[in-house]
Amino acid sequence: MRSLKHQILILLLGSLILLATSFLVVLGFYMKDRAVAAAIIKAQTDLATCGEIIDKTYPGSWSVHDGSLYKGPTKISLNNDLVDHLSRLTGDTVTVFLGETRVATTVRGSNGERAIGTKVSANVAQTVLQGGQTYVGEANVVGQWYQTGYVPLRAEDGNIIGIFYVGISHDYEQEIITRSLITMAELGLALTILVALLAWFFLQRVVIYPLHNIMLGTRDVATGHLTQKIKVSGAKEIGELEEAFNQMVEQIQSLTGEINRATGFNPGKDPTESDFITVTETEGSKALTELTLQNTFDTGQRSVSGLNSAGYIGEGGLPKGLNHATLGQIVQFLQANRRPLSAEEVAEGVKLTRVTVRRYLEFLEHSGALKSEQKYGTVGRPVKLFVPL
Fold it and tell me: CA–CA distance from 159 to each of 62, 121, 151, 154 (Å)?
């Protein structure tokens, strides 16, 4: 079974990959529209650029002589040098039409030859030759689709005698889309790796390490090390789990102490005297072993006895959930630090949880051993201090 951190990391990475894939798909559709718009703008720009180059290179008006197209005195029909030069400058396919027929072109037919003598598509001929308008958009060019630009060629008298064309292959659009997607994929991969590393660090520090420490604490309890408390840092829920675990340890300690007192403690003996308990099997069984338990009372427990004699605990004993050992430990700390203390300071000093220490302090306050006062700071809630009497 995979560990918790691996499961969380796989879930996180899966979500990031799914999000990145969805983003790239949406971006692909968006970039397709943008690539078409960019190709149309390029066609318009290339039409204007090529027109200026032709006018400067071949001055004069467009005309037809002996069935051939001329620009000034220069013959344009079959002038492959012109269309090849313009094609290299723009990266487009370039064609010059006489009427609706190609007379100079870089467009190739299915046989690989220049498509001289082929016709322009009918919708373009209607828009440019008959309507006298510029056509910019997708068009069928010798069986292939291009983003194109067509502009009418007018003679000196204003009559339309031909068409000038530039065409942008769909490979140009695909290149724009592919380049954009690759760039975004690289950025997305870098961000995914960064987020994964941050998530790994966060899981290790805030979730996995605290849970690991708590797990080690439970193993200590299971093996009998009942005095081991844990201290972890993490999220609020981790802190609550730590506090619950420490309270469980305290309850086990209290229960163990009660059992020891009930089975092995003799109040008539000196507290430093050793008691021996021999454990035997039932009738007919062989003696197993002899266990020696040494019961001692520390300084904190003597302080508790003093409190009892002073009337702080009362004849009814301690409230449910409190035990003499822990109370003695807290009293000893209070006697060693006879100054106003908060529950947090006492908890830090005796290595117990704040909630547990507060119960003992409130008990001592109710018994008359302590008094409390509020300390107000510049910001935040006031702090309750306990003052020994």
Answer: 10, 20, 13, 5
Reply yes or no on whether the pLDDT at 267 is more than 80.
Answer: no
**What's the pLDDT band for 240 if we cut at 50, 70, 90?**
low
Q: Which domains does the chain have, with CATH numbers?
A: 4-177 (3.30.450.20), 273-388 (1.10.10.10)
Which one, of 342, 345, 350, lies nearest residue 373 by Cα?
342
The pLDDT, as a whole number, for residue 85 is: 94
Q: Give 304-359 as a DSSP string.
A: HHHHHHHTSS-TT-SPTT--HHHHHHHHHHHHHS-S-EEHHHHHHHHT--HHHHHH
- Sign, CA torsion 89/67/129/72: positive
Q: In the structure, what pLDDT confidence band is assigned to residue 215 with cuts at 50, 70 and 90?
A: low
pLDDT band at 306 (very low <50, low <70, confident <90, very high): very low
- The answer to pTM > 0.70 is no
- Dihedral sign from CA coordinates of 179, 182, 187, 190: negative
At 373 the three-state DSSP class reads strand
Going from the C-alpha of 122 to that of each of 95, 130, 192, 369, the distances in angstroms are 16, 11, 52, 107
- Does residue 97 carry a pLDDT above 50? yes
DSSP per position, 231-293: -----HHHHHHHHHHHHHHHHHHHHHHHHHHHHH--TTS-TTS-EEEEE--STTPPP-EEEEE
Q: Is the dihedral of CA 357, 360, 362, 365 positive or negative?
A: negative
In whole angstroms, what is the distance from residue 334 CA to residue 301 CA? 13
Number of H-type helices and E-type strands within the chain: 10, 13
Banded model confidence at residue 150, pLDDT cuts 50, 70, 90: very high
The C-alpha atoms of residue 106 and residue 144 are separated, in whole angstroms, by 14
User: What does the pLDDT look like over 98-113, one tens digit per residue?
Assistant: 999 999 999 998 888 9
80-102 b/e (C-beta count within 10 Å ≥ 16 → b)? eebbeebbeebebbbbbbbbbeb
Give the pLDDT confidence score for residue 303 in this predicted structure: 41
